[in-house]
Amino acid sequence: MPGIIKERLFTPGPTPLLLEAQLRALTMTLHHRTDAFRALMRETLDHLRYYFNTKNDVIMFASSGTGAMEGAVSNLLSPGDRALIGTAGKFGERWVQLTKAYGIESVVVEAPYGHPVPIAEMKKHLESSGPFRAVFIQATESSTGVRNDVEALGRAVSALPDCCFVVDAITGLGTTDLQPDDWGIDILIGGSQKATMIPPGLAFASISDKAARAMEKSKLPRYYFDYLKERKSLAKGESSYTPATSLVVCLHDSLDYIKKLGRENLIANAALLAEATREAARALGLTNFAVSSPANAVTSINAPAGIESTKVVKEMRSRFGAILTDGQGSMKGQMFRIAHLGYYDFLDLLAILGALEISLQKVGHKCELGSGVRAAQNVYLRHSS
Amino acid sequence: MPGIIKERLFTPGPTPLLLEAQLRALTMTLHHRTDAFRALMRETLDHLRYYFNTKNDVIMFASSGTGAMEGAVSNLLSPGDRALIGTAGKFGERWVQLTKAYGIESVVVEAPYGHPVPIAEMKKHLESSGPFRAVFIQATESSTGVRNDVEALGRAVSALPDCCFVVDAITGLGTTDLQPDDWGIDILIGGSQKATMIPPGLAFASISDKAARAMEKSKLPRYYFDYLKERKSLAKGESSYTPATSLVVCLHDSLDYIKKLGRENLIANAALLAEATREAARALGLTNFAVSSPANAVTSINAPAGIESTKVVKEMRSRFGAILTDGQGSMKGQMFRIAHLGYYDFLDLLAILGALEISLQKVGHKCELGSGVRAAQNVYLRHSS
User: Fold this and answer.
1) Is position A1 within any domain?
2) pLDDT for residue A25
């Protein structure tokens, strides 16, 4: 039955776009060495400070989030420095690869997929295996759908005067309560194609005073991702190299939207959708991949017994145009993920759950039609007046 | 709980827009006295012929659908002519007002709201109360959600050499199987803000040879809505007066999309959504306003017992940004309507039904959460492989 099928992204990046912000980029004169653009850039950086919930400066690069992650390594450290890494999945493993690429020795605390990084073990290493110049972790690990306790870890790191705390919050920002200044997060990293509702192409990073002091002393090679150079340029409203102008305009306007909505409400929105999705999965006889501490950014759901998750993902795409993600790497076929990052509302969730129920039946998983939707509706009713 | 709320139209016009078609109008040079625009206009008229399922010429006006309805009256008739009108609701009543405005005496066959026009009675009038120069009716009456049997009526009128058959298919086109050439429909009328997925501002009308002959003899006053003048101009790719250029470009591209999808599939899509909505309403303990012959264009649902439909409409709008329509005129408060005109897919329906269940509970109507969604899912499964 070939009917109308609208493609819908439920992936943890890229995410659904805020059309109003996209359209703005079509109507604005976009030369970056103009007063108008400098003013817009400065306002955007202020917006980012609000979005990051920090008093620190936030810089941006024309790059994917990984660029800012690389910059955190190359700007903070020097040859011979040691790092402590907490990893709970594919993105945690990126910290391991990045430090290795720069010849930095690291101690890695690894959580099994589906579990958060054991913070107690991280603390023990801080006390007994140091000194470390930097600690790296994710706020939310989007390959497994797990949230790490960055508050507890941050408070421990901030007691160490010569060690910086770096948090990849690429999917954590806008989905998770983060208090970088109180928790001692020295570098907080974000990306544009996530809860900011715009396309890929921009990376963000906040810089604490402690981080800036460390950068002045650090000796690893860097050029494009030079944090302090960029901070100095951006203070004048100009990036060191050509900025991705259309994305900056989009970002400015999407952050306008987010300011109006309220950062807390954006986070509460993701939290509601995530909770409703977890409850729906249970009602449909499925289990959540996150054993504990599930993230609001993305919900990971184990494949139905005896059925590859890849089949569910394919059914959703071909039948309904709904794009979910399969597990990454060794998790492929084992689980699938539904994202709640940014521009989703409750009707988006009702639609995806109703489609999921049909797809599960089609791949041979027995479940009661409407029961996942009902579980989500009950979560909505618990939280609304 | 203030979260993200996306506004969604579920009204029988305007309808959700096909963004791709909108964007085209931004990028095209839009002067109407150019070869490029003439070529585009001619292609659009060809597309309209496909969309109308007719070999007759189709003309367009920069106006709402009512303009083309007025034109049908003023182009076909002369002072002293009589007309037969079948009306089943607010839009049928417009034929009565239009003929009255031009001093045309008419015989009106009126169905109670919720019922289709009794065709047998229309036929009896054709046989015994004539002569009539024209017969007017709606393919689907969107104020009540009812479909009229235009085939049976058309076959009867086509036997009369001096009587033309005029069908307002403003919400019928793209939602209902119509075979104007076989059924003897002399003028078929459409509007842009319906299943063509573009904004309001264009009206369409097909003209049979029989209608053209009648127009040559007719003596009612007309100027802007002169059908034959417009047909002559448009044959050269130019409208008589300034065309609504951006809408023509949108229409061209939306009809491209519809041709690729297939007219039959567009209609089947609306039929599926309408059937699923009716079943969902029943599962939720509600009754359909259309007593028989429900339209695919829009489903009208009676208010829950003891509760004004206005409350349901308000709840849907304030809580979920979902815009439904209340009953019109004397039907206000008595029923509400969910449209299936054009650019809707099954996920749109799942979303609206899930939201409706919550809204019904909130206004005090007892229903099982998820049960309307399940009824719709079962309709989907019956029709899909």
Assistant:
1) no
2) 87
Domain of B330 in residue numbering reads as 8-15+262-383
Give A 357-376 residues with CB within 8 A of chain B.
357-358, 361, 368-374, 376
Looking up tokens 């599930």 gives A294
Last residue of a domain, one of A261, A281, A301: A261
Amino acid at A189: I
B282 and B214, same structural domain? no
Query: Model ipTM?
Result: 0.93
pLDDT in tens, B126-144: 999 989 999 999 999 999 9
Beta carbons of A324 and A169 less than 8 angstroms apart: no
Dihedral sign of CA atoms A353, A354, A358, A361 in order:
positive
* Cα dist from A307 to A265, A313, B132, whole Å: 37, 11, 67
Distance CA B192, CA A329 (A): 49
Is A368 inside any structural domain?
yes
Among A136, A106, A167, A91, CA closest to A328: A91
CA distance B232 to B227: 9
Is A267 in the same domain as A170?
no
The answer to whether residues B279 and B207 belong to one domain is: no
Determine the average pLDDT of the residues in A144-164: 98
Backbone angles phi, psi at B267, to 5 degrees: -70, -45
Question: Which residues 224-263 of A are in CB contact (within 8 Å) with B?
Answer: 261-262
Return the closest-CA partner of residue B95 out of B167, B146, B155, B173: B167
How does DSSP classify residue B111?
P
The count of structural domains within chain A is 2
Question: How far apart are the C-alpha atoms of B272 and B12, rounded to whole Å?
Answer: 16
Same domain? A255 vs A286: no
B338 and B312, same structural domain? yes
Separation of alpha carbons A199 and A375, rounded Å: 32
Q: Which of B341, B347, B383 to mutate to test the interface with A (most CBs of A within 10 A)?
A: B347
Contact residues, B window 7-26, toward A, CB-based 8 Å cutoff: 8, 19, 26
- Give the residues across from A60 on adjacent strands: A204
Whole-model pTM: value is: 0.95
Q: Exposed (0-12), middle (13-18) or buried (19+): which is B159, by Cβ within 10 Å?
A: exposed
Consecutive H or E run containing A86:
strand A82-87
